[in-house]
Design goal:
The protein is mainly β. It is built from 5 helices and 13 strands. Strand 12 and strand 13 form a beta hairpin.
């Protein structure tokens, strides 16, 4: 593994992820679901060969606002449609040092001694949550079966690029700029107008034109 690789991206959605039906309509198929005991969240994940998309929602507001979790700002991000927070998170796999200063989050669902380094700039809820994933392998290298057939049925292979657009008046943090400079993946930033959005550029296994998935709209768009 190189020093820094893209692992996954998350977006907060409504409880139970009704938005998943929109991804189903686009031809994507969920890979697995998981709860995060003590953090108060659960997810549904869509694996590609090199990374995955995570739809995340709140299951327990007492847990997500508890002292052990509150500093992450996850509760604010979960309520993004009301407070204007950024609903997205970008996770990296790292074999070295993160390209930005971090603090160690010790979520209750991880084994003792394990932690997740989170960028200090992520305390600003208008920024995406930047962090280092505890996982160190691509989905196409997982041995536990969670990745399933990934998105083979849809003919999709890898996440090639992320295009993150901010709400008007919000500038990308220095930490995000450091990530751009480190180039673990093609990452662009721009401005979306009234609210943030994220576009995933996905390669096709047949070598055809890339496809572009826009969130939170959950729709294909033209390049």
């Amino acid at each position: 593994m190189s020093a820094l690789e893209f692992c996954h991206v998350f977006m907060f959605v409504e409880p139970g992820a009704p938005e998943a039906s929109s991804l189903d309509d686009l031809g994507l198929r969920e890979s697995y679901r998981r709860a995060h005991p003590g953090q108060g969240t659960a997810n549904v994940c869509y694996c590609f060969d090199n990374a995955f998309l995570e739809l995340l929602w709140v299951t327990d507001w007492a847990a997500i606002t508890s002292p052990a979790v509150a500093r992450t700002g996850l509760a604010k991000r979960a309520d993004w449609q009301q407070n204007g927070a950024n609903p997205f998170g970008i996770a990296l796999r790292s074999a070295g040092v993160a390209p930005f200063p971090t603090w160690d989050y010790k979520p209750p669902y991880l084994p003792a001694g394990k932690s997740i380094p989170i960028a200090l700039s992520s305390k600003d809820p208008t920024q995406p949550l930047l962090f280092i994933s505890p996982g160190n392998a691509r989905p196409d290298q997982w041995q536990d079966g969670r990745a399933g057939n990934r998105q083979c049925a849809a003919g999709l292979s890898e996440v090639k690029k992320l295009e993150l657009s901010f709400a008007d008046g919000v500038q990308p943090s220095d930490d995000l700029q450091a990530l751009l400079d480190a180039e673990p993946l093609a990452l662009g930033v721009g401005h979306a107008g009234p609210g943030p959005k994220l576009t995933l550029t996905l390669t096709r296994s047949d070598g055809g034109p890339d496809q572009h998935l826009e969130l939170p709209a959950m729709t294909w768009i033209d390049a």
